[in-house]
Amino acid sequence: MRVSIILGTRPQIIKSAPIIQEALNSGLDLEIIHTGQHYDYELSQAFIKEFNLPEPVTNLEVGSGSHAYQTGEIMLRLEKYLLKDRYSLALIPGDTNSALAGALTCVKLGIPVAHVEAGARCYDMGMAEEVNRRLIDHCSKLLFAPTLNCKRNLEKESVLGETYLTGDTMYDVFLRFKEKVDECDIIDRLELSDKEYNLLTLHRAENVDRVERLRSILNGIVNSNVKTVFPIHPRTKRRLREFGISLENTNVKVIESVGYVEMLKLLKHAKTVLTDSGGLQKEAFWSKTPCITLRDRTEWVETIDIGVNFLVGADTERITQTINLIEKRYDSIIRKFVGNPFGDGYASRKIVEIIRSL
Ligand code: UD1
């Protein structure tokens, strides 16, 4: 059995890493196909290196572009590649344009698709990722749900494939890198100390591509006056430049993109994380760091229900108020970090076992 895993972006490499390691350890013939959606060293190759993954067998080098361009172009290039080199199954992690293009191309070539992180829903079709994940789930043969809530979402939509509750592969990798996180020296290098700063990440198209929304979010953070470390995504960096927004001489310290271990170290020692990322909301939960989610909806409702993730959208005042509220009620919020709806740290093993049993 020859299996491919199709990825193209930073978060997809993270959630695939433990599956790839598990597959290789168990002798499963698995190859990485990289679409080239992320091409900067710090968004792609740096992560392949950090997780010690084998080099992709091909890089389709699609690069950046509109949704239709990116999705269509990946499909064309991938089809050409797959016609030469057949696989019996394609693993598709996450919900990016690379994931959608990968799933559609494979299913049309008769290659069964297995979706990793199936069933996540935020019910906001204005988000590209929501559109992508719905479509992928409905053409997948195997659906690996990270939480019970995700599995229920799939049942509600009566998907045709077989659904498995596996847990979240991001939790697997989080546990495996704990020691490395302890050893990481980024806190000293940035001259930070424990719980005296907030951490910010911001990259979603709906937040950074519109100047009013971007300003509104940043004003909320600047008005808080709390020292805030901001590892910046290339997309956001470009937008700040285009919109003429400067964060110099404010409480926000902009730094270049960081690696996986560095990000987890920054997260562990932050008082609060402010983010529009999906993955970071979960990593904040596992790190026991309160999270403010800068979106109108989230697919990780489990963390909201537990009371440690605050969904605030882009409203300036609400953002500042929530930062202050967490500061004030910090001890009682910290006590809410109990349980873990994201599995037992062996999601990747379960996924590989299911594939091997086919
Ligand atoms: C993509 C995913 C998003 C994921 C994110 C993680 C989609 C629809 N979105 O968003 O779900 O959370 O990756 O980062 O698939 N750029 C660079 N260097 C790169 C790649 C991109 O500078 O290596 C810049 C370019 O200006 C590009 C912009 O970022 O136009 C957007 O890149 P793109 O891959 O389209 O989307 P992301 O915002 O990274």
Summarize it:
This protein has 358 residues and is α/β, with parallel strands linked by helices. The protein has 18 helices and 13 strands.
- Terminal CA distance reads 9 Å
Low-confidence stretches: none
Number of DSSP helices? Answer: 18
Helix content: 40-55%
Radius of gyration: 20 Å
User: What hetero molecules are bound to the protein chains?
Assistant: uridine-diphosphate-N-acetylglucosamine
Structural class: alpha/beta
Largest sheet, in brief, is: 7 strands, parallel
Average per-residue pLDDT, rounded, comes to 97
The protein's oligomeric status is: single chain
Classify the beta-strand content into a percent band: 5-15%
Number of strands: 13
Main sheet: which strands, in order across? Answer: 3-2-1-4-5-6-7
Shape: globular
Can you tag this structure with a few keywords?
358 residues, alpha/beta, 7-stranded parallel beta sheet, 6-stranded parallel beta sheet, 18 helices, 13 strands, 48% helix, globular, binds uridine-diphosphate-N-acetylglucosamine
Describe what this molecule looks like in 3D.
The radius of gyration is 20 Å and the shape is globular. It has 18 helices and 13 strands. The strands form 2 sheets. A 7-stranded parallel sheet has the order 3-2-1-4-5-6-7, sandwiched between helices. Strands 10-9-8-11-12-13 form a 6-stranded parallel sheet, sandwiched between helices. Helix 1 links the parallel strand 1 (2-7) and strand 2 (29-34). By secondary structure, it is an alpha/beta fold. Uridine-diphosphate-N-acetylglucosamine binds next to helix 1, helix 5 and helix 12. The site of uridine-diphosphate-N-acetylglucosamine has 18 residues, from helix 1, helix 5 and helix 12.
